[in-house]
Amino acid sequence: MSLCRADKFLLASAAVTVGSAAVFGPSAWSLGVPFGAHALLMVDGIFRPESAVLYPTLIRGRTDQPQVALTFDDGPDPEITPAVLDMLAEYDARATFFVIGRHLEKHRALGERIHREGHELGNHSWQHSYLLNFSSAAGHGVEMDRCSQLIKSVTESEREPLYRPPVGLKSPAMARAAHQRNLNVVAWSIHSRDTFARDPRAVANGVVRRIRPGDIVLMHDGHDRDNRHRPLILEALPLLLQGLRERGLKSVTVSGLSNETQPATPAPNDARLASDDARS
Ligand SMILES: [Zn+2]
């Protein structure tokens, strides 16, 4: 059985604890060290979506080409996603849509359009529950598998989609479930702040000013709550795409950004992990 990175960390801290307890006798340290190690892992998984401590996480792709990856989370949304797709087509840009499974089930035709137009469908869990991070590895697995299976049926492909946990949250249990499935986990290097900003121009300018080749940008075309929408992207995206064009940067899929060569069709399984390629 191969252990995931989080389990190795926990086992190491347990071994140190047992060793020190054997040598120095049981003490506050004996209990404090494993508890502290676990607490540190939980804090890291919650506050640092880009962290690869718990699990190898892609936050940036190849930097030797003038390419970036725009990513859209929480859709598909029947009011927003079609317009986003129109804008991307107008600029000949490709993107990755980390969809919520229950939304994709309701709006399957939109998922098919995303795939048909050369974009990539990524797995963003089935429910997008904020409590998912506190569930067991089995609980994470159910969420991962259900959305993954639907994406595979929409794309008619057996390739395992990239995975982005809800809110980018990680836990040792999430890492265990991802490890068992050999998932490629993706975070981002630039958060567009489109979920809390009010000025679409500020969102677009903020991204265009910071972006460099290889960057992965987080945006939202959907909302995790039913019947709520995130329309700001409709005004921000054309400005952003225009800004990328002026800077000579092309948006490709996350898998395209991380591959040796840009594939004609998205190839999620071929994604290379920039932060660490050891699938421990
Ligand atoms: Zn989300």
Automatic annotation (TrEMBL):
Q: Name one GO molecular function term.
A: hydrolase activity, acting on carbon-nitrogen (but not peptide) bonds
Q: Which InterPro entries match?
A: Glyco_hydro/deAcase_b/a-brl, NODB_dom, Polysacc_deacetylase_ArnD
Q: What is the top-level taxon of the source organism?
A: Bacteria
Q: Where is the NodB homology domain?
A: 66-252
Q: What name has this protein been given in UniProt?
A: NodB homology domain-containing protein
Q: Where is the composition biased (Polar residues)?
A: 255-264
| PROSITE patterns in the cross-refs | NODB
PANTHER family xref list? GLYCOSYL TRANSFERASE-RELATED
Region feature Disordered, mapped onto this chain: 255-280
Q: Might you name a Gene Ontology BP term for this protein?
A: carbohydrate metabolic process
> Gene3D superfamilies under this entry?
Glycoside hydrolase/deacetylase (3.20.20.370)
Pfam families cross-referenced by the UniProt entry = Polysacc_deac_1
